[in-house]
Amino acid sequence: MTRRRVRAAGLRFAYAGGPAVLAGADLDVPPGGRLALLGANGCGKSTLLRCLSGALAPREGEVTVDGVAVDRSRAGLRRHRQTVQLVTQDPDDQLFSASVAADVSFGPLNLGLPEARVRERVEEALALLAVAHLRDRPTHLLSFGERKRVAIAGAVAMRPSVLALDEPTAGLDPAAVVDTLAALDRLQAAGTSLVLATHDVDLALAWADQVAVVVAGTVRQGDPATLLSDVALVAGARLQRPWVLAVRDRLAALGVVPPDAGARDEASLLALLGG
């Protein structure tokens, strides 16, 4: 997997007749890393991902790959979608073939690849998402969590450098969340850069290398613990501080742990307490 640097600079976008959704948004996707895109519902996360993938054209600003602006011609966008793939929040927006294997093969077939290479990509994607056992299952008979993972597999079969996921854990039960995150771990290990849009601050803190908080059409990006400890930023984005940081700060105030103690999840918090 070729690691590419995808950036958005000064993006401005508004839907017809509506107010600005993005008002000069910048985003830097770390090659091979995990970026969580945070913000309240309706803040512009999905719009930003669609601009990143080429599905929407910003009114101002540009998206670049390794410093080169995306070519918005038909052929240019086709090439770009081999670099950045978007998985939407509702899997039914992307699943339409009769079977899982047919759906996952759709993208590679449209690239004009030989049948043997298409099969190779399909099997690879099904294995990475742990859905190979569903290969011949009709898509309409899948559970919601299975449909989400199959939709991701369809994007993965394109072998993108960057996979952008819009609320991939929304609506899933706890076991399905664990399965989905484990699949994303495998994708990152294979070299894919991940951008995950969510309003789950606890997930972002535990999972991401960096977070990007969308507020008032702009983006603040940086270290998860640092940004999510910024009370004004978190409140302005209509989010809540992660519970781990709140508990850590209370323990620090009581002198139980050092003020700068690192804690990203329950396990690391318990480790600070010697548990």
General description of the model:
It is a single chain. This protein has 275 residues and is of the alpha/beta class. Among the domains are: 1-32 and 39-83 and 162-174 and 195-240, Rossmann fold; 242-275, no CATH class. It is 39% helix and 21% strand. A six-stranded mixed sheet has the order 6-7-8-3-9-10, sandwiched between helices. The protein has a four-stranded antiparallel sheet with strand order 2-1-4-5, with helices on one face. The model has no long low-confidence stretch (mean pLDDT 92).
What is the terminal-to-terminal distance?
A: 39 Å
User: How do the helices and strands follow one another from N- to C-terminus?
Assistant: EEEHEEHEHHHEHEHEEHHHH
> For the residues shown, what is the average pLDDT?
92
**Unreliably modeled segments:** none
CATH superfamily of the domain at 1-32 and 39-83 and 162-174 and 195-240: P-loop containing nucleotide triphosphate hydrolases
Order of adjacent strands in the largest pleated sheet = 6-7-8-3-9-10
User: Total number of β-strand segments?
Assistant: 10
Count of individual helical segments = 11
The biggest sheet amounts to: 6 strands, mixed
CATH domain fold name of the domain at 1-32 and 39-83 and 162-174 and 195-240: Rossmann fold
CATH architecture call of the domain at 1-32 and 39-83 and 162-174 and 195-240: 3-Layer(aba) Sandwich
